[in-house]
Amino acid sequence: MPQTSTMFLKPFISAPSTTLWSKSYGCENSADANVRICKRAEVVCLGMLAPRKFMQRRKKIEVFKDAADEADQKNWRKLMLEIEESDSATEVLKTRRVKNQPLPKDMIVGTLIRFKQLKKWNLVSEVLEWLRTQHWWDFKEMDLLMLITAYGKLGQFNKAERVLGYMHRKGYPPHVVSYTGLMEAYGRGGQFNKAEAIFRRMQSSGPEPSAVTYQIILKSFVEGDKFKEAEEIFDTLLDKEKSPLKPDQKMFHMMIYMYKKAGNYEKARKIFSMMPERGAPQTTVTYNSLMSFETSYKEVANIYDQMQRADIRPDVVSYALLINAYGKARREEEALAVFEEMLDAGVRPTQKAYNILLDAFAISGMVEQARVVFKSMRRDRCTPDLFSYTTMLSAYVNASDMDGAEKFFKRIKTDGFEPNVVTHGTLIKGYAKANDLEKMLEKYESMRVDGIKPNPTIFTTIMDAFGKNKDFGSAVIWFNEMVSSGVSPDQKAKNILLSLAKTAEEQMEAKQIVESLSLDRILNNVEDDDVIDDDDDDDDVSGVSADQKAKNIPSSLAKKVVESQYVDRLLNNVEADNVDDVDDDDDEDDDVDDDEEDDDEDESSVSEDTNSWSVSISSGDHNQEHLVEVL
Asked: Which of 207, 209, 230, 384 shows a CA-CA span of 20 to 30 A to 619?
């Protein structure tokens, strides 16, 4: 029999999600119901978070072709484990060479494929850099394309530029993968104007942008808050007469995210409703995107119901978003019910899902229920992190149990975690709430001794605590301390300072402090906008010519013009070097003479302009899926 745990919750009224409660929670009088209501609003949950069979450890049975296949598979997995533990791929690969013989190509390719699948582009780059120095590895065009793709994922645009230049010096024609890789490198590196310049060049002169190119440029624009440019490109894709290709699911998702980021929820919903008629299927990710920016638990539950009616199975993110919505609304019983439904559906909870449920109980100070969730994490192999410990600490604080909070704070250190600014701030908030100013300041000093810099929330909490004790002078002192510490007061801190002022004199003083801060910020912004490089001879992208200054071009526009010109020069120089300009003697110099190569030499010297890495990829269709060539 499962253990019975008692939960003291608010009286259950109803859950907005009818589908959610139709299975096991819909009948209040049913003998099989997991929840029953008592006169004192006591909710008894039988087997709260009881372990499910699918979460139990199972021995994995593997089938191999033969003994040789089994040995190869186990050897390769051992290699992956060694790389993960050492955090250096090349050092491990070097140890696998026997008497300076080449490593098996399938081992190299399989390793790179796995790293690509795991999106560990730093390891991909490390392996490729090492391979470039090995005489036994043959480099081709496709190798360089993967190289520039790796640089693009890492945002290393300077290296991507050098690889692109090297490719064209060797006579390779412009390729959509190389241009897209450089464009992504600019986007991830924060050089959004350069990314746009690459894209415009591809539109006008080629190579023809692919679907992946459009996905990446939309993402770059959204990350750079260039919403207007992203909207223009997407509108062009929606125009069947002008569009070079049909917008796909990822593009729609990016636009939904953009409107969410811009706070335009109405347009986000419009894009969502447009997907079926445009042939872009709505998936779990699509519904999760909508749920993520809804603030009302009723709206989140409504979208969840729509997803189930569309016969789309929720994933762990879907459940976590719904649990979070109920938790923020302090509807703990519904949050727990959703979590239980997730377990019943066979969806394994993640650490974040557990943390969200833990937070739902912690917000209301429900310590016992939070402890049950906290213990369940270890049982289900979701090791609690510092966020879990801090959330559990907040449960004690919100329950006004400062003794329990102190004991748990000590446990955090005992369990091997170092409390961060949020952890300390939670304890400070507890003593401020208890009106124990002495203990509050003691915890503040302890935090500073640990070398942790306070954030605006901590200063605001202390300032508010003094103000509520009718000590407006101390509140002003702590506000000024926040400014002098280099912490910019947010709007909440300013509003609290203004609200603490009671007399006319205090109100005038608070108003002057807030207005002076606003004036300082305006002046600083003006000074930043007026700063333009005065060196006319500097060709760097940060420089602006004297002609541009004379025309009073805004610095942001001038910068965009300069960066566009920089990209044009780069691509023009690249495209000017064609196959006819490549000297055969240079090729011979770059090749390694196998007859003269010493067998004991593992690494060959590499010139600066040929510092590249290799792995073969295929990118023929519009989907441009980067796959490693099967060797």
From this structure: 230
